[in-house]
Amino acid sequence: MARNSHALSTKYNILYNGQIALDKGIKGIEAGNQDDFWEILPVEAMNIDEDIVADTTKNSDFALAETKATKAIQKHSMNIGGRERNSQIDEAYLLLGKSRYYDKRFIPALDAFNYILYKYPNSSRIDEAKIWREKTNMRLGNDALVVKNISQMLKEHKPEKQVLADANALLASAFLNLEEKDSAIVRLKKAVNFSKRNNEKARYRFILGQLYQEMGQNDQARDYYEAVIKMNRKADRKYMMQSQVRLAQMFDYQNGDKFAFDEKYHKLLENRENRPFLDVLNHQMGIFYDQQGKDEKALEYYNASLDNAKTDTYLIASNYRNIGNMYFKKASYPMAAKYYDSTLVKLDPKTREFIRIDKIRKNLDEVIFYESIAVRNDSILNVVSLPESEKVAYFDAYIEKIKKEDEAQRVLEEKEAEKQKNIERNSQATTADVAVSANGNSAPKPAFTPPSMTALQADNTFYFYNPTTVSFGKVAFKKNWGKRTAGGYWRVSSVTAANPVMASDSTAITPENAVAEDILKDKEVNPKYEADFYLNQLPTSKTAIDSIAKERNDSYYQLGIIYKEKFKEYDLAASKLEQLLGYQPEEKVVLPALYNLYKIYQITDKDRAESFKNKIITQYPGSRYAQILGNENVIVEEGNPDVVYKKLYQHYINEEFDVVLSKIDGLINQFSGEEILPKLELLKANTIGKVHGLKDYKAALENVAASYPNSEEGKKATSILAEQIPLLENMNFDFKTSGHWKILYPLALNAVDDKKAIEEKITKFMNADNAQKLSLTFNSYDSKEGFVIIQGITTKEYATSVAQVLKENPSYKIATPAVIISNENYKIIQIRKNLNSYLEAKKE
């Protein structure tokens, strides 16, 4: 009897209250849980976004449940003869484990579940305990162990239906973590069939729909979403509404019934039960109209979605992004940039989407800059080209427009000013209407009070009765008119009043004349309302007009390249480049524009591409572009562009410049349109500089800067041209004393035996008689010659002595003439490839 009383007390008192606390805590988790419906939902509706803590409670409800479970174990456990006699203790341990699990203290929870399996193997709740233990293992990242243990449990015996549902749902969750989606789908289907809980059924079906949608099996996905919708009020409404959204995402805009779609989703929007979901429904309607090109309707629904969005930051970001895309398509780049800025604020900076939009946003700065130049200069050149009468008519129309705008603004300001005055007047009247009695209570104002009395002064709004307004008026008067005497007409200063000044027509400036003059001033015409104000600002000289046209042409070229390379907006890019060619620009941008049009039309219009190719080859046969397009026997390199570039760059590092130049044109043609292209072009320019010298290097850099102005390589080329090339061009030989010298032995690059012999003799000399720390190296000079170099010499005299020894000493006898040169001059001959000029200058 005593033993049974312990069990009853445990069950109906301690564990009952503990279970109530646990249920309350679980409801709190469900209420606070925010599912991210943009991603595949987790099978269990409990997100873990905090660090796992071993023994610290965070939720008072779960703490109470744990306390009750501990109390039941400590006070009512009856371990007699190695056997537990209280049948409720296993329930207490299960409650203990659950409370710790929901409190996200998984290691202590695992201890509780393991104790049940160890101590109570015959418990009626043993299968449930096993599932909870594996749930905890999964939270600790042991997914493979979960699959193994639960699969073993299901093989050994068949639990009741709900336990089977929980076991299969747990397996599905583990398989999803292991990226085994097919296995997860099989287990989720079983969980749906066995579960008795409608909310779980709806969640599992929705996840199945998501998985099939992600795998591209839209028919199966639709079936599961429809199944969720048919459940209607049996489950949480969020699953039903998100299923409607998912169905909308899969709508076939080519063959689908748009009228039925429109009607269906308008009904959903009008349903009062769907008010919490107006954000996603309006967003989907915005996409529906956006896809059909109905921008005004789309914008209306996107804004409605933003108005209703509260906590879903990705939804807010998606609305901003889509609106930004709409403005971008309409070439309203400043507005697009603003919406992209708002998008980036709401996106996670670690996501690929953030990086992509951030890149677009940065590129938009360039688009906005060049578009503004193009629009402004087009407008100026258009007006300049008009006949004089049409120019005047153009500006007259513009003046009428700004007059209306100014008048509307003036009326608005007057209304605002009048409104503000009314507010102030009412405020003063309200303040004056209330008097305060001695006891602090409001008292009515006396009905009749002489003007001199304080009560009336506080109430009266007459200007001169208010000392504050009088003081303000004095300051304003002095500010406008200065100090004036009381004599004569106040609008004319005392000096003028006493001594009238004679005008050029001998008319005295009297008070009456002063009034007339002020009236005339009031009627003076604002310059911006005169056509001459604008006509006088138009450029007239040919130099100025040509400069504006050149700036406009450069902007069109830059825009064409940006649209092509950075936005892949080929139609926009082609339009800008075609317009540019129509303006007959400078010769240096014609050929790059034609080549870029050829590359664009290779993607969008093969026939037009062929015509541009023929035009380049026939009209510019000697150009680099013609050589690339006409070379049909280019050897194609295997591998992705980055790998190929690294191999070629290694040849450059090894000074195998002939190899680089023999391959690079073919690679430029092979990878045309790829992101690697500017790198290849810059590498080619650097190689040309190494082989052919400064003049050809400068020309190659100019080509990189013009062809790829928006790439890092193009900007680097521009920087080198602006900062380094002028300095290099101004470098001259200096035959003054230097602290660093070299001895050069010029050789043909293919004279391998001569090179080897000279290097062996120099090495022998350095080992036998090296008074200084000398070193030996070899540098290429151009495509045919190179230098065997002795370096590390500090004086010219010592260099001369070493060269003499190597020439005359019988042990060495190097016949090749040596060139003694300072490090500074050596840099110049390598940059400018002018060794002969150095030798001539040295003789002089």
TrEMBL record:
Transmembrane segments: none annotated. The keyword Coiled coil applies. It holds the Pfam family TPR_8. TPR repeats lie at residues 202-235. Residues 398-425 form a coiled coil. Keywords: Coiled coil, TPR repeat. SUPFAM superfamilies: TPR-like. The keyword Coiled coil applies. This is Gliding motility protein. It comes from Flavobacterium flevense.
